[in-house]
Amino acid sequence: MWQLYQFPLCPFTRKVRTLLNEKDVGYQLMRENPWERRDAFIDMNPAGQTPVMTDNERGVVLVDSMAICEYFEETVERVAMINGTAANRAEIRRLVAWFDTHFYRDVTQPLLDERMIKRIAHRMAPDASRLREAMKSAVGHLDYIDFLLDHRKWIAGSTISLADLAAAAQISVADYLGGIDWAGHALTKAWYSAFKSRRSFRPLLAERISGIEPPSYYENPDF
């Protein structure tokens, strides 16, 4: 059995988990708070970041969400998520990198820092100006997703792909932390509403961080 080291609001783990669920790959969740920098975890991944996947029987350790996703794309034929022509696959990878890098840097990371890590790890109040900047950035990112969905059925093209999983992972964490204003983003809202109904994604929406509650509509696909 695979073991997946993660914490509930890690967007990169959410991307991996949704992929594994789409492909019906079994795994066991292992709670890891990377900000605690546990020695045994650092030994597995010196960068100290989640997710990490291990299979102790085979002696396999997989580090980095994109490397993990690529591994299961190569080894599990069911439900390809990096699909289509070479150009299509390049576009999927471009957009996964966009969400993993730009959306995370501008929106998800500051929300996690201010509304979760400061509270849990440091018992500090959030920086209101940094939160405002993150929420302002979220509007710009949702504008871009609206643009993509105005020309495509899914984020990267005509079929669901890893780009959708990466986008939903980042958005779901930002939404949990109250960083998303859905007003004026009908296309992205409709896409996300459909995504929230997927069997692979719904278990993630049911998870909670102790002491930090999401908005009341968070789990509801018809929000």
Automatic annotation (TrEMBL):
Q: Which Pfam families match?
A: GST_N_3
- Superkingdom of source: Bacteria
- Annotated keywords: Transferase
Q: What is this protein called?
A: Glutathione S-transferase
What stretches pass through the bilayer?
A: none
Boundaries of each GST N-terminal domain copy? 1-80
This protein's assembly is summarised as: Homodimer.
Q: Name one GO biological process term.
A: glutathione metabolic process
Q: Which organism is it from?
A: Sphingomonas endophytica
| SUPFAM superfamilies attached to this UniProt entry | GST C-terminal domain-like (SSF47616), Thioredoxin-like (SSF52833)
Q: Which residues form the signal peptide?
A: none
Please give the Gene Ontology molecular function terms for this protein: glutathione transferase activity
InterPro entries xref list? Glutathione-S-Trfase_C-like, Glutathione-S-Trfase_C_sf, Glutathione_S-Trfase, Glutathione_S-Trfase_N, Thioredoxin-like_sf
Query: Which residues are in the GST C-terminal domain?
Result: 85-218
